[in-house]
Design brief:
The protein has helices spanning 216-233, 246-253, 257-269; strands at residues 15-24, 27-30, 37-40, 53-60, 66-69, 80-89, 92-95, 103-106, 119-126, 133-136, 155-163, 167-172, 176-181, 194-202, 208-212, 237-238, 273-275, 280-282. With 287 residues, the protein is mostly beta strands.
């Protein structure tokens, strides 16, 4: 959660670091350069006093007033998230994003008619006409690979968009699209799933291939600690080796077979583990 202080240029849909300027029976008011923004009493941290700085999320309440909360919504302006629909009106749909007031999706911003109880992938945006936070299912308009802001081997945030013939189309850093190929994935994924990954390749047409996890031996370093911990939790032995099924390895370790082999190979060279016919074992300290 990153808070911003905009010298009273406060925008709904973001976290802001604001000063408490007065306390009242219904809560505290935060400095916005005007009359102040109310933080209702139920959201005021215990012990808060005038002069304190609080990180709050700003949005409009059900009466269209700008209001603050210390609750954390499922996303902020710019985020792409999977949310459930809780009600539908002729004007649009309302989605639960973790705040008292639900997030509105105008009918014109829906790809298909939304239904209560179903989840949809949407982008949260700030409506320029009303100044209010809203959401749209028409995400493609916000995605562009012409002006790339990423480079090969860079760590990125990924959101699964949809399936294709060759892999999962993913949204990169809420700005670009790429492909996570099926041979790089060892579990089923659904639209809206979030994961960390890195840019594997960018071709001349700005088409991007991504891989889940961290690149190369940086990944091995992290995964080595995981394997050592799992060995210690299982009496120093695990029934997995380079002959094990890739799906079994992913289910237990949460990593690809390629990463598993690289990591166990590194641990073997460090004499921390030994290979057996049926698995891997911690090196006997007494040997």
């Amino acid at each position: 959660m990153k808070a911003i202080s905009l010298s009273f240029m406060i925008k709904p849909g973001a976290y802001n670091l604001l000063k408490v300027i007065r306390a009242v029976a219904i809560g505290v008011y935060l400095d916005d350069g005007k009359e102040g923004i109310l933080l209702p009493k139920r959201y005021v941290p215990e012990g808060t006093k005038v002069g304190d700085m609080l990180t709050v999320f700003i949005y409009h309440d059900s009466e269209s007033r700008v209001i603050a909360t210390t609750q954390q919504p499922a996303g902020i302006v710019g985020d792409i998230v999977m949310l459930p629909v809780v009600s539908v009106t002729p004007q649009g749909a309302f989605m639960d994003w973790g705040l008292q007031k639900d997030l509105f999706v105008p009918k014109s911003k829906q790809r298909v008619r939304m239904h209560v109880g179903e989840k949809y992938l949407v982008k949260i945006y700030l409506d320029e006409q009303t100044g209010r936070v809203a959401a749209t299912e028409k995400i493609d308009a916000f995605l562009d690979n012409e002006m790339l802001t990423v480079k090969e081997m860079e760590m990125v945030d990924l959101v699964v968009y949809r399936r294709t013939d060759i892999g999962y189309l993913v949204i990169i850093n809420n700005r670009h699209t790429g492909v996570l190929h099926y041979n790089e994935v060892f579990r089923d994924m659904e639209p809206g799933d979030k994961l960390k990954g890195f840019i594997k390749n960018i071709n001349e047409e700005h088409k991007i291939d991504v891989v889940a996890g961290k690149p190369g031996y940086e990944k091995v370093t992290d995964e080595a600690g995981k394997i050592m911990r799992l060995l210690e939790e299982n009496n120093g032995y695990l029934p997995y080796n380079d002959k094990s099924d890739p799906g079994d390895i992913y289910s237990f370790f949460g990593m690809s077979k390629k990463t598993f082999k690289m990591t166990t190979g590194s641990l073997y060279k460090q004499q921390k583990i030994v290979f057996t016919q049926t698995g891997i074992r911690l090196t006997d300290p007494a040997s």
